[in-house]
Design brief:
The chain has 217 residues and is α/β, with parallel strands linked by helices. It is 44% helix and 11% strand.
Length: 217
């Protein structure tokens, strides 16, 4: 049986920015339907996302491009992803947390298992203030963020940092991420893995909890 659940943040714990276009448009005063790129939800609408999936650009590059695009729509210069997230989601950060993530992490924590986050850009994209306003994060035993470590998944050192923070072996941990290359990196380190489906979060969390012999429903 597994001992710890290790989660990516963006897309796994939080809803993707693709899923909250309505909120973004409303908050920023953009006309409904202004944001047409849909990433994994409509690949033909988003060649830039497809390029990221092929490894031609990084995920950071993708979101920085989108951030700058939206800033220009508002006549502003947005130099980083944090500006986008703060302006689009800052009023009520909890509204973008997946209810499935809230439910699953509560089940795992209440059963006495460990929780950790392994993210490439938690503070880079969201900012420390945003993070501080999310009660769900108090449930986690460790947060390993490449914003501060400088080591990005799928570098093996990223996964080892999470294992070290938990003082556990690789096969004790279930790693959940929505990017295949990050899952491949975890598998190479001998961690148990679940490729998170942003189109079906409940099924992904249900699969993860089976490693702990826990029921999601």
């Amino acid at each position: 049986m597994a001992k710890a659940l290790v989660l990516d943040f963006g897309g796994v714990i939080s809803k993707t920015l693709f899923e909250t276009h309505d909120l973004t448009e409303r908050t920023l005063g953009l006309a409904k339907g202004t944001l047409t790129w849909r990433g994994p939800f409509a690949l033909d609408s988003d060649p830039l996302w497809a390029a990221m999936q092929r490894g031609e650009i990084s995920e950071r590059d993708y979101w920085l491009t989108r951030s700058r695009e939206i800033g220009r729509m508002l006549g502003e210069d947005w130099p980083d992803m944090e500006t986008f997230v703060r302006r689009a989601r800052g009023a009520d950060p909890e509204t973008v947390i997946r209810p499935e993530a809230e439910h699953a992490t509560r089940i795992v924590a209440d059963a006495g298992f460990r929780l950790a986050i392994l993210s490439n850009e938690l503070d880079l994209f969201y900012g420390a203030d945003f993070r501080a306003r999310l009660p769900i994060l108090a449930r986690f035993d460790a947060i390993v963020d490449a914003t501060h470590t400088g080591i990005l998944k799928p570098d093996p050192r990223a996964y080892q940092s999470a294992l070290d923070a938990l003082s556990l072996n690789a096969d004790d941990c279930v790693f959940v991420d929505d990017q295949r290359r990050n899952i491949a990196g975890a598998e190479a380190c001998r961690m148990r893995t679940v490729l998170f489906d942003v189109k079906n979060p409940a099924a992904s969390y249900r699969e993860a909890l089976r490693h702990f012999e826990l029921q999601f429903d």
